[in-house]
Design goal:
- The complex is a heterodimer of chains A (about 240) and B (about 230).
- Chain A is about 30% helix and about 30% strand.
- With about 240 residues, chain A is of the alpha+beta class.
- Chain A has a single domain, classed as GHMP Kinase, N-terminal domain (Ribosomal Protein S5, domain 2).
- In chain A, the strands form two sheets. In chain A, strands 1-2-3-5-4 form a five-stranded mixed beta sheet. In chain A, strands 6, 7, 8, 9 and 10 form a five-stranded antiparallel beta sheet that branches.
- In chain A, a hairpin with a 4-residue loop joins β8 and β9 (about 190-195).
- Chain A is globular, with a radius of gyration of 18 Å.
- Chain B has about 230 residues and is of the alpha+beta class.
- In chain B, strands 8, 9, 10, 11, 12 and 13 form a six-stranded antiparallel beta sheet that branches.
- Chain B is flat, with a radius of gyration of 20 Å.
- The chains are: A alpha+beta (about 240), B alpha+beta (about 230).
Chain lengths: ~240, ~230
């Protein structure tokens, strides 16, 4: 077993307990999609493309009262060390579902009855915490597509490693750590749209872990914001 | 002139708080006025709105749109109007009231692929937009160059009281038909004028969020600067 944390609190990749990995987001990278974003979240490399609102196929899925949101999270065969079968796995189906449900409260679907908004997320390289990174990219891609949203969605994980609460779990910590908690929030509205927990935490640890993750989400939000500002207003903030 | 406060916003940004009316692309959460899209917020005396910089076209009654015929049914044509909804043009609108599906052939008038300037006669949440060509300057477009721009930038291309589009038309002697859906047909006898007009339209599309755009377009087209007080507003 690898040592996940030194005695003075330095993690296996050299970060402190409350450090994020390096994050960079590019907006509008795909010409054929209505909106798109590319995120590098540590070693994660993820593309998100948004299409719509557009006609629903198959037709029976259409809703007369509201638009619908569909989401597909997919890992490329070359995204992990051993080739991954490109067919959707149980895990990918689950992540597609939770991403969809995390984005739904933010998107104003009522404005587009009888249509669908499709979100496609392709993981090119995976490194732990890919669902959070995918969600960050998908939210920015939705904003790029000009789909009305109540707020952006920012996601970040926290967890427990070597009996300490740490921010932004990487792949090793995910595999061998004690707990992993991905959280997504709508930062301005102040609501949590995704909260999962894998592992065991005491009530105190749980509270501190959630607070750590929310703090991380807010830092991710600033990066998302900057990326959108750069794309649309070149100069950044006015 | 009324004092208007402008700011660049993204979804979720709080534009203002207090008892004012949320308009275009703004949603109200208690006292807060929140932007729902990427754009430029404008706070007026008693209302607030966001001019979007991206987004699809949503049909509105009375909009002039340019559509492409994508199909026919016995009683109507179906149009791609660059929106998530398909536009319908009833056959009676073209053939008159005595239209009969057994006698008249729809494709003789408008075939698949034809471009048509039409007006949105009716549209609501429950049904697809109904088009009409019963007006001056509407109907089939025979010649010209089709350009696509982002529908959210159409007001900028038209400019305040049509200032931008007049500038381009006068400088290039082109005839420009602007559909609110972001499809534009430019026709011009002189090929150089056509190219210039196309270039100017693409420039507006790319630089829609910057101030003094009319002046910049004028200098690109080689028109002497006038006394047009262009602002970021449409």
């Amino acid at each position: 077993m690898t040592q996940l944390m030194t005695e003075d609190g330095i993690r296996c990749d050299g970060r402190k307990t409350d450090d994020l990995r390096n994050i960079s987001i590019k907006v509008g990278v795909l010409k054929n999609a209505d909106g798109s974003a590319y995120i590098e979240f540590g070693q994660n490399k993820i593309l998100a493309g948004v299409f719509g609102p557009r006609d629903v196929h198959p037709k029976h899925m259409a809703n007369q009262d509201t638009g619908i949101l569909r989401c597909r999270y997919h890992m490329s065969p070359f995204s992990v060390t051993e080739r991954k079968n490109p067919a959707p796995s149980r895990r990918e189906i689950e992540i597609s579902k939770v991403i969809k449900e995390a984005l739904e409260p933010a998107v104003i679907l009522k404005d587009f009855p009888r249509t669908v908004i499709d979100v496609f997320v392709e993981v090119l390289q995976a490194d732990g915490g890919s669902r959070c990174a995918a969600l960050d990219a998908a939210a920015v891609a939705l904003a790029d597509a000009g789909i009305p949203m109540r707020d952006l969605v920012s996601a970040c994980a926290a967890g427990k490693v070597a009996d300490r609460i740490v921010l932004d779990i990487n792949n090793e910590e995910d595999q061998e750590g004690q707990a992993d908690m991905p959280v997504a929030i709508m930062p301005n509205v102040g609501k949590v749209t995704l909260m999962q927990l894998d592992g065991v935490l005491t009530p105190e640890e749980y509270k501190s872990c959630l607070q750590t993750a929310i703090g991380g989400c807010k830092r991710v939000y600033e990066i998302q914001r900057k990326a959108l500002m750069e794309k649309y207003f070149q100069t950044g903030e006015q | 002139m009324m004092d208007v406060k402008r700011r660049y916003v993204i979804p979720g940004d709080i534009i203002a708080t207090g008892p004012i009316r949320p308009e275009q692309n703004v949603y109200q959460d208690g006292e807060k006025m929140i932007s729902t899209c990427v754009g430029i917020s404008e706070i007026f005396e008693n209302s607030v709105r966001v001019i979007p910089l991206t987004g699809a076209y949503m049909p509105k009654t009375n909009d002039l749109v340019i559509g492409k015929v994508v199909g026919t049914s016995p009683l109507s044509w179906e149009f791609d109007i660059n929106s998530c909804y398909i536009g319908f043009l009833p056959a009676q609108d073209v053939f008159g009231r005595d239209y009969s599906p057994t006698k008249d052939e729809l494709k003789q008038r408008l075939d698949i692929g034809d471009l048509v300037a039409a007006r949105v006669a009716n549209f609501d949440r429950s049904r697809d937009p109904l088009l009409t060509v019963q007006d001056r300057d509407l109907g089939k477009i025979d010649s010209g160059e089709l350009i696509e721009i982002s529908p959210s930038k159409v007001p900028r291309l038209i400019g305040k009281r049509g200032s931008m589009i007049q500038t381009i038309e006068m400088a290039t002697r082109a005839v420009i038909t602007i559909g609110q859906n972001g499809w534009i047909v430019v026709s011009c006898d002189d090929s150089e004028g056509l190219l210039k007009a196309v270039e100017a339209i693409k420039m507006v599309d790319a630089l829609a969020h910057t101030p003094n755009l009319t002046e910049r377009v004028k200098s690109m087209l080689g028109v002497p600067a006038g006394e047009n007080n262009d602002t970021i507003n449409d």
